[in-house]
Records
---
Amino acid sequence: MWIILGVLFSFSVLALEPFERLNNVKILRVLPNNIVMLNRGIEDGILRNDHAKLSSDTAGYGARAICLKVSSDVSYWRLYRVPNSEAFSQDYLYTITGLADREIPVAQAELRNQRHAIEEEKKKVDPGPDPFAIKTDLPEKLTERDLIKSEGPERRKLFIEQTLNKDLLQRDLEDYRISLYASPFTRQSINEGESLRYGFRGGNIASKYRLLTQFEQQQTKLKDPVTKESVSTRSTTGQVQFVISGLTTSLSSLSLVNYNSQRFSELATPQHHWQVGPIGFTWHLYESKTWEYMDLSYIPLYDVRTTEVMNDDGSLTETETNGLRHGFRLAFKTRINERVAFENLLWVRPFQDLASWEIEGDNLNLSNDLKLIFNLSENLFFDYNFVYQKDKLWKTLSDLPESNTINSINVRYDFDF
């Protein structure tokens, strides 16, 4: 029993993970119903039901596909999205890039529950003069040169060339996905406000370079916490995030720009708030078929914040604070089933004064974004979102509660750009 479980576990480890790449892939056969036979199999980490993107250096992005059948050295893939049929040729070499299960359209996901009988091509092989001779793929003669590894400047140069690849960056940005979303219902605790929230998110499905963008506006009808009168306000948030994956097997780079502007009653707190992180790092703690990712990140953020302050005579003045925030992020996403997923994003950003270099342990600019995602159709999603925020400056600068909770229901639509 334990032997059988061990074999099954070893197969699950070999499965093609999101963003994992296999190079030098060839099409061996083209079968009916958009099925192709590739020269990669279980020995290369491919299992049935794997989801991937096929691309080539010659023709670029070719198709998305699902693995229907696999043996030790070959696999059969159903191409379900082929934007450019001329991108396929048995003369090209391809790259397989693993994709997350959530990217499979609902109509195509049904293929994973079916068994596909594909007749494999039988070829007669000439046994040669000695059919019992054992051949090896090792070199006939091993020299000292074969044992030499690049060191010093050569190794650094090779690492830079692999990390900063202009051609690969251009190819990775070709397949870009936009998500439009709106929240017909949003309620937050800080001012008993009911809001309409809308915006967009964008991101590419990439093998190495990943660009994420987000812009959001929120219009709110609320009860003023000071005068108890009903007023309308608006908040704006934006983010640009750039990731270079695969610096090592478990490490990626992280660059980040955050913008936030929020108005409560007559006070803009903050009026403008920028957090800029040129470079940070993400440690990939765990990934599997059900856990799309579990990551821990650190990035130093230069923090500039302009806030309006109300004086005793009712007039408004602006105050500006700037310093360094140490950004710690814990993010994970797990899939409950084909249509339901759970996602959580926790940010803790303690503030450090650049003049005294003192770290303020109570000024954390903390936020936790929890999301339950329901896939209604191929590109249509329904989300429940719960956000907890804690900002010391709301209390010290604007006499507002320093914590806030937001409950919202989102409707989201994804499409490729």
---
Amino acid sequence: MKQATNQTEIVLSLAGHDKGQLYLVLRDEGDRALVADGKGRKLATPKRKSRKHLQSVGTSAHPAAERLHRGEAVSDKEVRAVLAAFRESEFPDGPEKGIQ
């Protein structure tokens, strides 16, 4: 799925030991994507994951996500905040089964 112009894509891992984990897409590399969650996969060492093992679940207009999309520096703590805000907005009654 293509990203909106000013928003960062959020994806769900569908396979592997990280199945059910939410990530921010840092860079799209065609059939692969570089992803990070700010905790297990930090910005300094993103995970390269096949697009067939990822499902796009939305985008984020969070200020830190917008800065990341523009190529500006953000911290791992800010990445975690973006994902937490997304979880809270999409799943206000608590996490969906299988989503971490």
